[in-house]
Design goal:
The radius of gyration is 20 Å and the shape is globular. The two termini are about 25 Å apart. The chain is built from 9 helices and 10 strands. The strands form 2 sheets. A 6-stranded mixed β-sheet has the order 6-7-8-3-9-10, with helices on both faces. A 4-stranded antiparallel β-sheet has the order 2-1-4-5, with helices on one face. The relative contact order is 0.16. Helix 4 packs across helix 5. The chain is α/β, with parallel strands linked by helices. The longest helix is centred in the C-terminal third of the chain and has 18 residues. Adenosine-5'-triphosphate (ATP) binds next to strand 2 and helix 1.
Length: about 270
């Protein structure tokens, strides 16, 4: 069956200019956070990006999410190149592509109830009547297995795992196609991590979601992903099916990453 491509990233670069070390320095140096990266994300897959700290993973996530603009290169959503998209197209993209960040704590307004935070995306995108929004919020809580009593509480009343469930509920509220999960379980205890990863797998099956899954943890990536891109110093050094990456790594950098995985991991796949 022909795979349908949702996102196509073509030769993107993101360079950050470093401050001049002295006032007469002529050439301003730059950090190549992302340096000529290309990949496609297929519908309903989990596409992983793995690499050590500073390899450029989060910068790729922020580029795909349009939080920052590339120095060069193009990102396509289906046939639409994003830099030349009009306002309505970008608004649709912002609805279709949602992000779940690493820290579950900073993302919800501490002074607002969870109900307010879950209703907010509908207000921003002007979707549904008040009754429809309330009904949808109840359904969202069911999806992430949280009780109704969640709604009139505040963020400080929840654990990290519960907050990440709320963030996921918020991210799926507008029925997006793609979730960008940037180290979304890294801040959680291992047992809670497993629960959230299983929740994400269930939601993907139920809602037909596509994931861009970013992590430094090779075990977590192996557990979650269909295809994996390995990043090092702003470049993709290897991109392949997950099984190939683990069973038959081609790049020496991938091999050295794999050799550093702790073997006693709760995520080791038996398949
Ligand atoms: N706004 C910025 N200004 C300057 N340099 C930046 C900026 N954002 C990222 N960088 C640099 O770009 C490189 C890639 O950073 P990035 O955060 O994308 O890596 P990462 O793989 O996600 O690592 P981590 O998991 O530690 O965040 C790093 O050297 C980082 O210091």
């Amino acid at each position: 069956m022909e795979k349908s491509t949702i996102i196509s990233v073509k030769n993107i670069k993101k360079y950050y200019k470093l401050p001049r070390s002295h006032p007469f320095q002529r050439q301003q140096e730059s950090i190549k956070a992302v340096d000529d990266v290309s990949f496609d994300i297929y519908k309903s897959e989990t596409f992983g990006i793995v690499g050590e700290s500073g390899s450029g993973k989060s910068t790729v996530a922020r580029l795909v999410n349009q939080l920052i603009r590339p120095t060069a290169g193009d990102i396509y959503y289906y046939d639409q190149e994003l830099a030349s998209a009009n306002k309505a197209q970008l608004m649709d993209y912002r609805k279709q592509v949602q992000m779940v960040f690493q820290s579950p704590y900073g993302t919800l307004d501490p002074r607002k109830t969870i109900e307010f935070s879950l209703l907010e995306p509908f207000a921003i995108h002007n979707i549904g009547t008040t009754a429809e929004r309330t009904q949808r919020v109840a359904t969202l809580l069911d999806y992430v297995s949280l009780p109704k009593s969640t709604l009139n509480k505040y963020p400080h009343e929840f654990s990290g795992g519960q907050l990440q469930r709320i963030n996921i509920a918020r991210a799926i509220s507008l029925e997006p196609e793609l979730l960008i999960l940037d180290e979304s379980v890294s801040a959680l205890d291992v047992s809670v991590q497993a629960q959230i990863l299983n929740l994400l797998n269930d939601l993907q099956e139920e809602l037909g979601l596509t994931y861009l899954f970013i992590s430094h943890d090779l075990n977590v990536v192996r557990y979650m992903c269909d295809r994996i891109a390995v990043m090092n110093q702003g470049k993709i050094v290897e991109l392949n099916d997950a099984k190939e990456i683990y069973d038959n790594p081609q790049a020496s950098y991938t091999r050295s990453l794999l050799s550093a995985i702790p073997i006693s991991s709760p995520y080791l796949r038996t398949t």
